[in-house]
From TrEMBL:
Record-annotated ABC transporter domain positions: 14-251
Keyword ATP-binding: yes
Species whose genome carries this gene: Thermoactinomyces daqus
Protein family according to the UniProt entry: Belongs to the ABC transporter superfamily.
InterPro entries, alphabetized: AAA+_ATPase, ABC_transporter-like_ATP-bd, ABC_transporter_ATP-binding, P-loop_NTPase
Domain of life: Bacteria
Name of the featured protein: ABC transporter ATP-binding protein
An annotated Gene Ontology molecular function: ATP hydrolysis activity
Keywords: ATP-binding, Nucleotide-binding, Transport
Transcription regulation keyword on record: no
Length: 269
C-alpha cells in the first residue's frame, strides 16, 4: 500500500465581520487537511496514525476508503489506484469509524443481516460469522437482539467492528475504534485487533488519540499534525529519536500538544 504526495483540501465558508460585504456573502477559506503525505505500508502490518484533533487522520482514512478523492498525489492499495480502480479497492477494504451508521430501530442481528446482503454474502454464513465476532467481543445473544438505539456506544462500536470483519477485509481501516469506550470495552476491542492479526491475512491502519493503544497495537506509527506527517517509526524508534521512555513525551515533542490538551479538545467536541 502506497501513498505518494497526497494532498486534500476543503473549502470552508467563513463569515468575516470586518466588512459588511463579507459578513453577508461569506468567503471561502482553504483548509489543507492532508498535505504532501507519503508513506508505504507492508502487508500484515498494523500502521498507526496518531495526531491531535483536526490533524487530518480521518481525511486520510476517507481517502484510502474511496469516500474522498485527493486533489493531488496518488494512493495505491495492493497495486490498485484508489481513484481509477475504486471498485477493486472496495473489495479489499472495510472501515470502522466513530460515526458508524445503523438502522437504530433494528437490532444488531438485523443490521448485520442487512449488511451481509449488501456485501453479497450468504446471509446465514454472514450472520454466523458476525455473531461469533460479537461473542468474542463480549456481547451476548440477548444484547445482539436489542435495538441499536438501546445499546451503549461501546456496544454499537462492537457491532460496527463485527460488520466490518464479516467481509474478512484484507485492509481494515480502523478510525478511532476505541474513542469514548469504557476501559473494559476498549480492552476487548484491542485484544480482538491483536487476535485478528494473528489469525487473518490482514493489514490494519488505525487512527487513535491514545498513545498506549498506538504503542501496544502498531508495528509503526506516523505522527500527523496540521495535515503533515511529522514523524514515522516504530514506537521504540520514535522514543529513541527523542531520548525518552514515554510516548506522551514523543507526541508532545512532535506536535507541541500534551495528552491533556488532546483530552480537553475531545471533551469540548
Ligand atoms: N468536509 C469538510 N469541510 C471542511 N473542512 C473539513 C472537512 N472535513 C475535514 N475538514 C477539516 O480538515 C482538517 C482535518 O480534519 P480531520 O477530520 O481529517 O482530522 P482528524 O485528525 O481526524 O480529527 P479528529 O481527531 O478530531 O477526528 C480539519 O481542519 C477539519 O476541520
Amino acid at each position: 500500500m502506497e501513498c505518494r504526495d497526497v494532498c486534500k483540501s476543503f473549502y470552508e465558508e467563513i463569515k468575516d465581520s470586518r466588512s459588511w460585504k463579507n459578513l453577508f456573502l461569506g468567503k471561502k477559506r482553504e483548509v489543507k487537511a492532508v498535505h504532501q503525505i507519503s508513506f508505504q505500508i507492508r502487508r500484515n502490518e498494523v500502521f498507526g496514525l496518531l495526531g491531535p484533533n483536526g490533524s487530518g487522520k480521518s481525511t486520510l482514512i476517507r481517502l484510502l476508503s474511496t469516500l474522498l478523492f485527493p486533489d493531488r498525489g496518488q494512493l495505491t492499495i495492493f497495486g490498485h489506484d484508489v481513484v481509477r480502480d475504486q471498485r477493486q479497492v472496495r473489495r479489499f477494504i472495510n472501515r470502522v469509524s466513530v460515526e458508524a451508521s445503523f438502522f437504530k430501530k433494528l437490532s444488531a442481528i438485523e443490521n448485520l443481516r442487512y449488511a451481509a446482503r449488501i456485501y453479497g454474502l450468504n446471509t446465514s454464513e454472514g450472520e454466523r460469522k458476525a455473531l461469533s465476532i460479537l461473542r468474542r467481543l463480549g456481547m451476548n445473544e440477548d444484547k445482539a437482539q436489542t435495538s441499536l438505539e438501546n445499546l451503549s456506544r461501546g456496544m454499537q462500536q462492537k457491532v460496527a467492528i463485527a460488520r466490518a470483519l464479516m467481509t474478512s477485509p484484507t485492509l481494515l481501516l480502523l478510525d478511532e475504534p476505541t474513542t469514548g469506550l469504557d476501559p473494559k470495552s476498549k480492552r476487548d476491542v484491542q485484544e480482538y485487533v491483536e487476535e485478528v492479526m494473528e489469525t487473518h491475512d490482514a493489514t490494519i491502519i488505525l487512527t487513535t488519540h491514545d498513545m498506549d493503544e498506538a504503542e501496544r497495537l502498531c508495528d509503526r506509527i506516523a505522527i500527523i499534525d496540521h495535515g503533515k506527517i511529522v514523524a514515522m517509526d516504530t514506537a521504540e524508534g520514535l522514543k529513541k529519536q527523542i531520548g525518552t521512555a514515554s510516548m506522551e513525551e514523543v507526541f508532545f515533542r512532535f506536535t507541541g500538544k500534551s495528552w491533556e490538551d488532546v483530552l480537553a479538545d475531545e471533551n469540548t467536541e
